[in-house]
Design goal:
The protein has 419 residues and is mainly alpha-helical. It has one domain (13-205, 225-409): Growth Hormone, Chain: A. It has 13 helices and no strands. The chain has helices at residues 13-43, 48-75, 78-95, 104-135, 139-175, 183-205, 214-218, 226-256, 262-290, 292-312, 316-344, 350-378, 381-409. α1 packs antiparallel against α4. It is globular.
Length: 419
């Protein structure tokens, strides 16, 4: 039986399943969980420093697990690693809301430990799903496959965020409690774990596919591209700082400074995710017309500019403009970066380089989350958003250099699309 999913009928069965897995897990981890866990720990009495610790715990876990997770994917089948990842996510999501029921000292570290468990699963899933998608697509369909996969990720996040914004109010009404209490958010987080359980079904349906074709295994002679990887890693670290500032502190800023309701924050964040879905689908066409150099550098500059309204316009419209801009441009930047990196690095090094870039982006999120909590406490949210904007601007310049580095090193003159 051939599985058909709307919008991805040009991809084969395993590619469609990978897209479906991306959408479902994103609705849970990036949608419901990411929205509600910040509000949950704030209702438990923690401050912005703890929000920073929580973001840093997840990001540093992503950083630490990225390369080992990719190496395990080389050793075992994709389906096995994705199943392990899914189970870890489920366990972490079930454990996280138990913090309110524990003694104060244990309750302080419990969300951090649970975050580590669920992020370990999320990391293993990501670093294995992207190279697996490379293995089950043709060169002609690869650009579209990555764009569709990122669109599914953003669409899942959108739907999860919308649902996450509604769930606390729904549970508060059923329980007769205020939204200032932690219980409605606790139940919302457990509801989010259900989506992670559902994702285990398409994971189980995956075939045991090889990561590399026989032809790719023959192409093992090129040295590791140290210079290019250093530039790509530095650029990814700095560019991702803008997204990190928005995601780690955008929700808390709208909650504590702008005093928006949870449902309003969920709605505004979902609007940003909708823009990200559309932007992801536009990426292959824009890359074909303007080239990776312009798209990657331009989206990095755009993310920096989008943080300016966040920092300087103290109004829900400023936060909306900022969040829509950052998430939409991130929705273009990431699906442009993935095939760019995969195409410019030989088959021998693809998994390793993707693991390195994943680790670097996790480090970026972790540093911004950890340092940002202290910056907010000492100064304001504005300073964190301006920091992210400045770092992303430098990242845009490094990405331009990385694109030119590879183009000059290549044999022959590349076309704009190749750049």
């Amino acid at each position: 039986m051939r599985l058909r999913l709307s919008g991805v009928s040009g991809l084969d069965r395993d590619a469609q399943l990978l897209v479906l897995i991306s959408g479902i897990t994103s609705s849970s981890y990036l949608g419901i969980q990411q929205l509600l866990r910040v509000f949950y720990v704030l209702r438990l009495g923690h401050g912005p420093e703890y929000v920073g610790f929580l973001g840093a715990a997840g990001a540093l876990t992503y950083m630490a697990v990225s390369i080992p997770g990719g190496a395990l994917g080389q050793r075992f089948s994709s389906r096995s690693m994705l199943m392990v990842a899914g189970l870890l996510m489920v366990v972490g999501m079930i454990l996280f809301p138990l913090a309110a029921w524990l003694p104060a000292r244990l309750g302080y570290v419990w969300p951090l430990a649970s975050q580590v468990v669920m992020t370990t699963g999320w990391t293993i899933l990501n670093v294995n799903a992207i190279p697996a998608l490379m293995a089950v697509t043709t060169e002609a369909s690869r650009g579209s496959a990555y764009a569709i996969n990122n669109s599914a990720k953003n669409l899942g996040t959108l739907l999860g965020t919308l649902l996450g914004g509604v769930l606390p109010g729904l549970f508060a009404g059923l329980l007769g409690q205020s939204l200032d209490s932690a219980r409605p958010y606790e139940l919302g987080l457990w509801a989010g774990a259900v989506f992670a359980v559902v994702a285990l079904v398409p994971i189980a349906l995956l075939r045991r596919t090889e990561r590399a074709t026989i032809v790719e295994r023959v192409e093992q002679c090129e040295p590791f591209p140290v210079g290019l990887v250093v530039l790509l890693a530095a650029s990814a670290y700095l560019t991702h700082a803008s997204y990190s500032a928005c995601q780690a502190f955008g929700g808390a800023y709208m909650d504590t400074e702008l005093n928006l309701s949870t449902s309003s924050i969920g709605l505004l964040t979902s609007l940003a995710q909708l823009a990200a879905v559309a932007a992801s689908l536009l990426t292959p066409r824009l890359v074909a017309r303007y080239g990776h150099r312009w798209i990657l550098s331009g989206t990095a500059l755009g993310m920096a500019a989008s943080l300016i309204p966040f920092a300087l316009w103290f109004h829900w419209l400023g936060a909306t403009v900022g969040r829509v801009g950052v998430l939409a441009l991130e929705g273009m930047w990431l699906p442009a970066l993935q095939p760019f990196q995969m195409g410019r690095v030989g088959p021998r090094w693809r998994s390793l380089v993707y693991g390195i870039l994943s680790m670097i982006m996790g480090l970026s999120f972790g540093v911004i989350s950890l340092a940002g909590g202290y910056i907010v406490a000492a100064y304001s949210y504005r300073h964190v958003f301006l920091l992210g904007a400045g770092l992303a601007t430098v990242g845009a310049g490094l990405m331009w250099a990385a694109s030119r580095w590879r183009a000059q090193a290549a044999v022959g003159v590349p076309t704009p699309a190749q750049e």
